TrEMBL record:
Record GO terms (molecular function): ABC-type transporter activity
Domain ABC transmembrane type-2 per the UniProt entry, residue ranges: 125-355
UniProt keyword Membrane, yes or no: yes
Listed transmembrane segments: 21-39, 163-186, 207-234, 240-263, 275-294, 334-352
Protein name: ABC-2 type transporter
Locations listed in the record: Membrane
Keywords assigned: Membrane, Transmembrane, Transmembrane helix
Main subcellular location: membrane
Membrane topology term: Multi-pass membrane protein
Top-rank taxon, per record: Bacteria
Entry GO terms, CC: membrane
Origin species: Dethiobacter alkaliphilus AHT 1
Signal peptide coordinates: none
Alphabetical list of InterPro entries matching this protein: ABC-2_transporter, ABC2_TM, ABC2_TM_bact-type
Amino acid sequence: MSFRMLTIANLKMHLRNRSSLFWHFAFPLIFMVLFGLIFSGGMTSQIRVGLVDTSSDFDEVFNTAFAEIDNATLVEGEKDELIDDLKNGGLDAVIVLDESTAANSLIDVEIFYDQTQSLTGSMARSFIISLLDQIRMQAFAVPELFDVTETSVARETLSYMSFLMPGVIGMSIMFSALFGTSYPLVMEREKGILRRLRLTLVTPVSFIGAKTVGLLAIAFMQAAIIIITGILFFDVQIVGSLWAASFVVLIGCLMMVALGLLVAGLANRLESVDAIANSIGMPMMFLAGTFFPVDGAPRWLQTIATVLPLTYLNDALREILVTGSTLIDVSNTLLIIVAWTVVFFAFAIYLFKWEVNYQK
């Protein structure tokens, strides 16, 4: 009963505080919208389609059909080369024709498109289906001509908003858990609440657990709001499992709560919380691949990024949400998150203080 009441009380404390609401929800959305408007660059109406070169009459038919359409460009080439262009974002779809099947049956047509780009990918797919039907009617005048097979190919180079959204989720979880744990604990220590807590029936595990559950609820709300914003306003396509992403949010929040407990142990007074928490959170926000990939950064910065806990939370969310990876695929990343959680909890327990040490 006491655990439930403590959980509700902690959650209400966060949700009734206007300043807390801003930092929990408005702050990450402002970053997402601002960076999205600056760097997303909008959507183009030009459709770029690759056609595997077969040096046959069909190539000429497709070139003629495409020549009559203003917003479509046809690029001929080898299959592997065109598929690579699709993965790198240079094409919206690729068509592969197998004319060897035309003698006795329908012509096999395989369409490759990118399901992570919901607007351009779907537009290109619909455009090609319509064009094939147009060719069938005008050039050959037969009831059926093509047997179409569709294959989804995930781009290796994500759109900026697809890259940004998981990073904003990770950043919001980090700051909410980091400050939402350390600041109240240090304040309660200064006011003597922790000292009085030792005389009650409430155990430290229940007390910390209630704070953690409240922050987990906020983390899930943050993730839901950011994902909905990405889908509705920036055309981000969610490919992976939301249940898998929820599990990553869960262990990611536990890791950041453990880090917040560590900060509370390091900070003897309330005035030091901001300095310590910001000195930890701000470098992670910019160096952990939240807003931009770190691949092009100097090697020493890339090395730093590989040891930052937020890097692994961002990577796991990014792999699951926008590239369709499973929990098994990111198991190594999840193990690193768990390892950081254990390390943070171990040091937090060692440094935990019930009362203010006035000698410092």
